[in-house]
Amino acid sequence: MLQVNFIREQKDTIITGLKKRGWSDEKMSILDQIMQADDRRKATQTEQDVLLSKINQHSKSIGDLFKSGKQAEANVLKEEVAAIKASSQTLDEELKNTKTELENLLFQVPNVPNELVPSGTTDEDNEVYQDLDGSLPDLGAEASPHWELASKYNLIDFVKGVQIAGAGFPVYMGKGARLQRALVQFFLNEANDAGYLELNTPFVVNEDSARGTGQLPDKEGQMYHAEVDNFYLIPTAEVPVTNMHRNEILAEADLPKKYTAFSPCFRREAGSYGADVKGLNRLHQFEKVEIVQMVHPSTSYEVLDQMIKHVEGLLIKLELPYRILRLCGGDLGFTSALTYDFEVYSGAQKRWLEVSSVSNFETFQSNRLKLRYKGDDGKKHLVHTLNGSALALPRIMASLLENNQTSDGIVIPEVLRKYTGFDMIN
Q1: SS3 per-residue string spanning the chain
Q2: For residue range 166-181, what is the model confidence (pLDDT) as tens digits?
């Protein structure tokens, strides 16, 4: 969530950034509405402060008058205080309503894209930041897509998943389940070696947590909601992990905070259909290892580069063909200032599959979370938050199965063999 002072001071910069997201001039009027609502909030607060000051002054005078035996004068003042309190209660309600209006307006404004974000409206406008050196792998016309390989080698049962829950909930079996577990162990160990503290967090969050990281109200329809208890199934471990320090003031010396967590991820993916959803390409439940950092604002873009290198290192060790995209304004997530997507190449499907997003949110999340640090200047400042998938498993699994298929079976990458206990699926 943007800060009102930032909107006042940097309105032109914000307009330039939001235009990258495809915002029209008409839509920009919400910035003026925010400032007007904030003006009303300030005016009401000032009026309320004056009344509260009068109440305090009169209350002291009433006590003095009673002590002096001036009961009649004291009673007159008591009546005045009662009238002032009534007015104060009315202002309290006005102030509450104005704050709610202001917050609801702020919730509608996405983060301001970094200057590096290219303009564009769809994923076709994303910028290739780093591409493969050389040609893409050619598996030949006989190559099988991962869903056929999963069936042939009894790795994944999509039919049983439909029977148990519905489409988008696969059942991993035998070596398929072991390969899935091996990937999780590999990703977590790599994160631990990079200095991330491993967490095991809840897989459901409350409304405040979902709002704090920006899933609410922006993505409410994409989350599974347990309405009786008002819990939300997490779409990513980013949500509970980042909320670890909601409403906290950290010491500057304690930054950065580096966390990693494995979790199932639940996404309704409403409106998804077609070839993109076949097999493991798009699921309602999948597993992912997440890395999250909370850092000093002066270092956040250096940290973003480090996180990109970390994810890249995983793909290199898995020997998967990949590329990195810098997302354009129209494809940028609501809360992000700058995002890099990693895609692996699916040799049998002959298409790129997204497997990771690494993002810097700057102060957008921390402002909602009220997550701050106390600087050397003695003042409280908002931290910068970042997160990345390291990595999401379904499309990694799909790419591994497809790109490593041979006439003898599927070859397991060297780096995973100590986790799987086998080097071939056949």
Answers
A1: CCCHHHHHHCHHHHHHHHHHCCCCCCCCHHHHHHHHHHHHHHHHHHHHHHHHHHHHHHHHHHHHHHHCCCHHHHHHHHHHHHHHHHHHHHHHHHHHHHHHHHHHHHCCCCCCCCCCCCCCCCHHHCEEEECCCCCCCCCCCCCCCHHHHHHHCCCEEHHHHHHHCCCCCCEECHHHHHHHHHHHHHHHHHHHHCCCEEECCCCEECHHHHHHCCCCCCCHHHCCEECCCCEEECCCCHHHHHHHHCCCEEEHHHCCEEEEEEEEEECCCCCCCCHHHCCCCCCCEEEEEEEEEEECHHHHHHHHHHHHHHHHHHHHHCCCCEEEEECCHHHCCCCCCEEEEEEEEECCCCEEEEEEEEEEEECHHHHHHCCEEECCCCCEEECEEEEEEEEEHHHHHHHHHHHCEECCEEECCHHHHHHHCCCEEC
A2: 999 999 999 999 999 9
